[in-house]
Specification:
Elements: E1 2-5, H1 17-25, E2 28-31, H2 34-43, E3 51-54, H3 60-72, E4 77-80, H4 93-101, E5 106-109, H5 114-122, E6 129-134, H6 139-147, E7 155-160, H7 165-176, E8 181-186, E9 194-199, H8 200-207, E10 215-219, H9 234-242, H10 247-258, H11 262-271
Parallel strand pairs: 1-4, 1-5, 2-3, 2-4, 6-7
Antiparallel strand pairs: 7-10, 8-9, 8-10
Helix pairs in contact: 3-4, 6-7, 7-8, 9-10
Length: 273
């Protein structure tokens, strides 16, 4: 079986009983960093009897055939990353996809996740959220990425390097506005855990100083904008119809863009004739 297991973000005491058992019984352990994995096993006082292989981004594809062979042969392959859940902005996805394509047995040992931990600590509405992985490194790509999030109604979670945090927050102020609520979560579950909450402008000013550690950022979703009166949208519908578009199609396109009901706009258009 292929087993993906969440590992502690920092405090080894967050390791589940099932993770401890898996470390001690797995035939093969595919670890993002073998030294960090062995340090975790030592901290948990769990002897490792299986073969430990490196499984980081650069070798993930090359390791794939051998790990699949192990699962086909009836061995238990345990996949772990440095912290948190495998395949979530970490190695693991390709292996899971390949195993699933062959209908090989796969399971997951749930546990710590920086994404959900940051969400609940942010103090922001998080009943709906989206995860964006790591923020783009290049300035232009980062600006375009943030521009796509201007109207995103869900809370937004992403990872960032402490060395690029200031640039990213400065750009976020420019694109999303200085008053957009956010939280910067640093060193989650570790000795120097810190959560900074506030408007983007305030957080960007704080990040101008020295910031260290693993960083997870949460942005508040965009506030819903008031829909315009349907009567004001009728000229746009008529213009599209005049250009040859069917009335129903024109109504549907304009209503979707403006966030109003199609039936309401359709009736308003007919009544204005």
């Amino acid at each position: 079986m292929l087993v993906l297991a969440a590992t502690p973000l920092g405090d080894a005491r967050d390791a589940s009983v099932r993770l401890r058992e898996a470390i001690g019984t797995a035939d093969v352990i595919a670890a993002e960093d073998t030294r960090r994995f062995r340090a975790l096993a030592a901290a948990l006082d769990v002897p490792v009897t299986g073969t430990v292989l490196s499984h980081y981004d650069a070798v993930e594809t090359a390791r794939l055939p051998g790990l699949l062979d192990d699962v086909r042969a009836g061995r238990t392959v345990l996949v772990v990353t440095d912290a948190g859940m495998p395949a979530v902005s970490d190695p693991g996805y390709r292996l899971v996809a390949a195993a699933a394509a062959e209908d090989l047995p796969i399971t997951c040992l749930p546990g710590p996740s920086a994404v959900t931990t940051a969400l609940v600590l942010s103090g922001l509405p998080c009943d709906r959220f989206c995860f964006e992985g790591f923020a783009p490194r290049k300035a232009g790509e980062r600006t375009r990425w943030l521009a796509q999030l201007v109207t995103e109604p869900r809370a937004i979670v992403f990872f960032e390097s402490p060395h690029r945090l200031r640039e990213t927050l400065d750009t976020a102020v420019e694109v999303l506005g200085p008053d957009r609520a956010a939280a910067v979560c640093r060193e989650l579950t570790k000795t120097y855990e810190e959560v900074r909450r506030g408007p983007l402008a305030e957080l960007a000013e704080w990040a101008a100083g020295e910031v260290r550690g693993e960083i997870t950022v949460v942005l508040a979703g965009a506030a819903p904008s008031a829909a315009p009166p349907v009567e004001s949208l009728v000229p746009a519908v008529r213009e599209r119809v005049a250009e040859g578009e069917r009335l129903k199609d024109a109504v549907a396109a304009v209503a979707k863009a403006a966030g109003v009901g199609k039936r309401e706009l359709y009736n308003a258009t007919l009544q204005s004739s």
